[in-house]
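Repro case for the chain-ordering regression, as requested:
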Amino acid sequence: MFYLALTICAVIFVYPFYWMVIASIAPENEIGSLTIMPTSLTLSSYAQMVDKIPIGGAFINSLIVASSITIGVLIFGSMIGYALSKLVFKGRDLIFYIIIFTMTLPFQITLIPQYIIMVKFGWIDTYWALIVPYLINALSIIMFRQYFKSIPDSLIDAARLDGCNELQIIFRILWPNSMPAIITIGIITFMASWNEVLWPLIVIRDESLMTMPQLVTLFAVGGRAESQLGVKLASAVMLALPIVLAYLFFQKYFIQSMASTGIKE
Amino acid sequence: MITRKKILPYLLVSPYIVHFLLFVAFPVVFSIVLTFHKWNIIAPMEYTGLNNYVRLFNDKTFIKSMGNTLIFLVIHIPLQIIVALFLAEILNQKLKLRGVFRGAFFLPVIVSGVVVTILWQQLYGFDTGLFNRLLTGVGLSKVGWLTDPGIAMISIAVMATWKNVGLYIILFLVGLQTVPAQYYEAADLEGANHWQKFFKITLPMINPTIFMVVILSTIGGFSLFIEPYIMTGGGPLNSTVSAVLYIYKQGFFYYHMGYAATLGLFFAFIILAVVMIQKKFIEKDH
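-- result from build under test --
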């Protein structure tokens, strides 16, 4: 009974993806009636897509942007999280409350002014606009702070006696002892940056600088797909593929990471 | 040495302070200033007093976008809770292959909204979409999933549920595991049936998770953007214009920066107000 219900639901969640993949490798005229398997398989939709949009370049852009953001969030997040959890200084609580406050602030209020800042900085159509605003992330600071609190002070004191400076303490002592936090923050940050689409649509107009979600979006709504379903779906498959592959290998971490952020919010 | 030790924490948090001032504090203040101005970025800013606010309350598209968001939330929130609770309850039965099913339900959560939207646009297609093929297959007539103004927003809400529900299944599973087993054992002794146990024990115990789902979905509803942007462009007849899509159109299509900022400020206020009311409910409950 339970298995029947679960299997029906699992089909509802997985079948559309299956359909998307086979539709992208089916002949264009068969997509409209496709259910399980086309009569023949072809890569022509992919060939046409590569012809029409710079999908390879967009892949590289997405990789550069998402990796830079993830590395930045991990470095800055752990530095700030360390100061807030292990060091005593004036204004520490104030900064902590400000961080909590910014987490509850809806992005709708800052969207327009942030765009104007990008214009004034001359950052429109540059990587800077895609990366810099995301380098600091309130949630990741809070998560690092929380995790570092569970690491005993004696470990840090011992390292200090051995002559470690504060940066060495963070990256040589705390990091190896905080792998669960680093994996969680790394996964959610990379995934969120890889999938981000509103901000790139606003600050990037030059096609050679577009990230994958933006390029695929504009391809889907613009006229260039010439109402061919196959090429649209092929571009969607390309966009989904890297994250789905990562998910297949690290499924447990993905689910734990997402669940922990949901709970903290 | 002592001064170095005193400065050090500030050095470590300085990136945050710079980021906060530049990308949070200044934008909030500037967005309030913008609401009193008319500006297209290129020409000088023009002071217009309360014009943007007057315009807001007379703007039919803005009112429509509020109504659309309401429709979205009324469909999305209950559907999300019912489906997530149902599947979490089943998955909580310690079945074999639990991990596989959980993994399947979670798949749409990790995939970009762009992918899900392009895919569902095909499924909702009028002539050859899978849903209409199913309907005509059993002898029913086709539905204008995305072309009927009375249905399009509901279609988007259903798709959004499909995309997000995996996350809420996990959150409910975590919640269900906090319910002490003794409660159920005691209920078993008194001869309670499955439904009684669900309504008298499970539901009250996972109330905090339900409220969290409501809050996250509300924020999600007001953040809806890429789904209508790709699927419908806000149409038919503005029936799928969402809050963020309207800010986007005013700001980056018409370059009405002052008015777009006014919309952003207003929507942010509504989100905060709704979330606070919901939080009050939670506190009252405990």
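Ordering looks correct now. Residues 195 and 202 of chain B are 10 Å apart (CA to CA).
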